[in-house]
């Protein structure tokens, strides 16, 4: 059975610093970012708000998508967020306690 994957974007605030990542366990990874257990970048810049995520049936596709997004211009990333989450709402409550990480 292939492992699913997730691409996610965290923000420090609306139009603030962005971080794009990939994981096979979205709930755990975002929890780590929010609690300062992840990387130095997200901790240093306060990048803890989940503003966008995408689900893939296999982690290899998620990795390809993450690499592509990381090469994008900043405006394209902002447009992606604005299209799916125009209010820049924190999506953490949508995934916390959800079966995402177990699927």
The low-confidence runs, each spanning 5 or more residues with pLDDT under 50, are: none
Specify the helix fraction band.
40-55%
CATH topology: GIY-YIG endonuclease
What is the number of E strands? 3
- Assess the beta-strand content as a share of residues: 15-25%
- Gyration radius, rounded: 13 Å
Distance between the termini: 11 Å
| N to C succession of SSEs | EEHHEHHH
CATH superfamily: GIY-YIG endonuclease
Largest sheet data: 3 strands, antiparallel
Structural class by helix and strand composition: alpha+beta
Shape-level CATH architecture: 3-Layer(aba) Sandwich
The gross shape turns out to be globular
Number of domains: 1
Number of separate helices: 5
> What would CATH call the class?
Alpha Beta
Give, in spatial order, the strands making up the sheet with the most strands.
Answer: 2-1-3
Q: For the residues shown, what is the average pLDDT?
A: 91
Describe this structure in words.
There is one protein chain. The protein has 103 residues and is α+β, with helices and mostly antiparallel strands. It has a single domain (5-102), classed as GIY-YIG endonuclease. Helices cover 42% and strands 20% of the residues. It has helices at 26-34, 40-45, 59-71, 74-84, 92-95; strands at residues 5-11, 18-23, 49-56. It has a three-stranded antiparallel beta sheet with strand order 2-1-3, with helices on both faces. Strand 1 and strand 2 form a beta hairpin. It is globular and about 35 Å long. The termini are close together. The mean pLDDT is 91.
